[in-house]
Amino acid sequence: MKPEIRIHALSIREAIAWASRRVRASAPRLAAEVLLAHVLNVSRAYLLAHPERTLAPDEWEAFARLVARSEQGEPLFYLIGEREFYGMPFKVTPAVLIPRPETEGLVDAALEWARSRAYRTYAPLVFADIGTGSGCIAVALAVYLPNSRGYATDLSPEALEVAQENAARHGVASRLTFLQGDLCAPLPEPVDLLVANLPYVARSEWADLDPAIREYEPILALDGGPDGLDLIRRFLAQAPGYLRPMGAVFLEIGAGQGPAVLTLARAAFPRAVIRLLKDAAGLDRIVAITH
């Protein structure tokens, strides 16, 4: 969509006001500020400090183009190509799911377990992130567990390219090995820690998703089959064969899937300690399997 022609140059204040009436977002002004800061390669604080600064024609055109895409429903983080996760910026493209704040709880739980394990052994921890997508979970674990190495698997070669870029960006590429394939199958060895945020949207829930999610985010990263548990079911069946003795599994789930996934986990790990952890909203979010 070609941006509308302006008859005069716009200031930062005017551009934000104009965009705030057009962008499709829950917080339109914030979204407008983020888009303009991205175009100008400045911080939002700069925008607030220089409201009278005039946009050059090429800056206006780039900004108006992004606003037009937002009007069509394209998610903000795909427009700017980046999303913060666990305090770090991650590249995102339509090849990967946009990282969600809820998934930070998965990293929290895995880190807590890994750090407690450090009191029992000095051997480097080996972990695997199954269905890595943008690589945000694997990279965060590698950053915060410097005495570790990890694997990250994904079915999508395009997603793995994004994940590799994010690993390089945060200085952990030498300790992460990226493998294309289905779930745990590509792993060359058992690991101490398995983490996974797999697709868990049930087909019956698809119509209720935000249109921006349905239309722009990769279906491969969302579709969990008829009951939302297709990949989780297969992952839990595989996991015991890829886990070292005294290892752990942390798995993100949908808010209503706790009882069903607990049953699957107990069948796969009859001697393990299995807990259901809640997110900040009090919803079931993580299944923790420890020994």
Automatic annotation (TrEMBL):
Organism lineage reads as:
Bacteria, Bacillati, Chloroflexota, Thermoflexia, Thermoflexales
Which is a GO BP term held by this UniProt record? methylation
Describe the reaction catalysed, as an equation.
Answer: L-glutaminyl-[peptide chain release factor] + S-adenosyl-L-methionine = N(5)-methyl-L-glutaminyl-[peptide chain release factor] + S-adenosyl-L-homocysteine + H(+)
EC numbers on record? 2.1.1.297
- Report the protein name in the record: Release factor glutamine methyltransferase
Which Gene3D superfamilies does the UniProt record give? Answer: DNA helicase RuvA subunit, C-terminal domain, Vaccinia Virus protein VP39
Name the residues that bind S-adenosyl-L-methionine.
131-135, 154, 197
What this chain does, per the entry, is described as: Methylates the class 1 translation termination release factors RF1/PrfA and RF2/PrfB on the glutamine residue of the universally conserved GGQ motif.
Family that this chain belongs to: Belongs to the protein N5-glutamine methyltransferase family. PrmC subfamily.
Do you know which Pfam families this protein is assigned to?
Methyltransf_25 (PF13649), PrmC_N (PF17827)
Domain named Release factor glutamine methyltransferase N-terminal: residues = 14-81
Keywords assigned by UniProt, alphabetized: Methyltransferase, S-adenosyl-L-methionine, Transferase
Q: Name one GO molecular function term.
A: peptide chain release factor N(5)-glutamine methyltransferase activity
SUPFAM superfamilies annotated for this entry?
S-adenosyl-L-methionine-dependent methyltransferases
Q: Where is the Methyltransferase domain?
A: 129-220
- Organism from which the protein derives: Thermoflexus hugenholtzii JAD2
Q: What class of enzyme is it?
A: transferase
